[in-house]
Design brief:
This protein has 497 residues and is mainly alpha-helical. 55% of the residues lie in helices and 4% in strands. The protein contains 25 helices and six strands. It is globular. The protein starts with a helix and ends in a 7-residue tail after the last helix.
Amino acid sequence: MTVFVMLMAIGTGAASAQVLDADEVRFFLTRTGFAPDATEAASFAGLTRRQAVERILSDSRSLAAIAAPDWTSETGSGLQNLKDKSDEEKKTLREQEHRRMFELRGWWLREMLSTPTPLTERMTLFWHNHFTSSEQKVRSAQLMYRQNVLLRQEALGHFGDLLHAVSKDPAMLLYLDNSSNRKGAPNENFAREVMELFTLGEGHYSQQDVTEAARAFTGWSVERDIGEFRWRPGAHDAGSKTVLGVSGNLGGDAVLDILLAQPACAEYLVTKLWREFVSPNPDAREVQRIAQRLRDSRYDIKVALRELFLSPAFWEPANRATLIKSPVEMVVGTLRQFQFTYDDPLPFTFAVAQLGQNLFNPPNVKGWPGGDAWINSTTLLARKAVLERLFRATERRPADMMQVRAHMQDGAKLPGQGALGRDGRIQFANAATMIGFDPHAWLANVGGDALAVPDTRQRLAIQRVVLAREPSAPTNSGLGGTAYLRSLVMDPVYQLK
């Protein structure tokens, strides 16, 4: 062990024994999950950094807590063969698929909103954006649901197991065209993306490696009727191949193991996790250290996360408020932190889609770019509009409710989702008018009052709960408690974590 590593270990050990204060608890739970409510934050009071990290890692789960829609238990693939259908039958099947996708998005958002282990859903979302697939191309809500189950099941397991499983996932095979990859006519899409986006990153492989790997993945296909992986030996190229210097009659699993053996693989993953949880600017030396631990552990994802969450950089004050909340994080975090009530999550699925993160439909094979790409003058205004609608939900008059219902029943479409159909529009309108927030109860928990003007101490207390750092602009000191709270939520700093 080098002197540097020894000093780092000593320093990290001392820091990890430090008891978290209230601000650090909120920071930690927001970074590793969604913004916590008062009950969740209180449950971590008195814990040290290490104890807090061990708790969220040990509490992680592999199954969703919310029951999935009934149709997910069907044995078929959900893939529709429209070739011999009438126009009316085609319309009915397409509407069914649209309806199922609405339900699927709502189900996952409800899971995020109610999960007792937010890190599980954050990592499921992380892998959804890493192993990108899109319902727009797959065209089966059933297969997208099964992929989501897989990502959650392996979200905090071993990356090697996840890589092998998702590479044979039917939605992935369809999305990256490997279901039609066969001897004599290899399709390189999956082979290229598994290197560039899933394991190594650009610059760590050649075009020849892609060409050879594509041959290795021939024969990996999908049984369309049941939506399961199917090995077709007659379509496999059994000739000798060379990938990253390893030669032989390589099959797909062998190629994946070759990729996992590359040092660049662990470094690529840790770099992405660093940008997800720590800061936009990875520390190269720390990345290498954590990547080595990841490889030594056979790609145990919890090992990498533990090292990241206990690293000095994670807790460094300079790295706070440096990450931008994704639309899902902003909407789900807001609803959780302020304990909004709702009957149906459907409006929230439209909100995150409007803000650029339409679940199960990433924009391309690279997924959502994240970071600074989430925010520009247009999206910032859109985010504020969503927050404004949420926090004024309790002020809607009956006339406003009727206007919303009439607008939706008149055939409205919503961004990123297409036509809802009459029943869906009515469902959306009813759900949108059933969202509630109790500012009296929430402000009382932080020593404030909904109507009275907070004093300096109360203002600071509310501010520290809501924002990751000081607001970007001074607020009106004459605002009552509810109005002051809204002014903080409208501040651009609210978009940071």
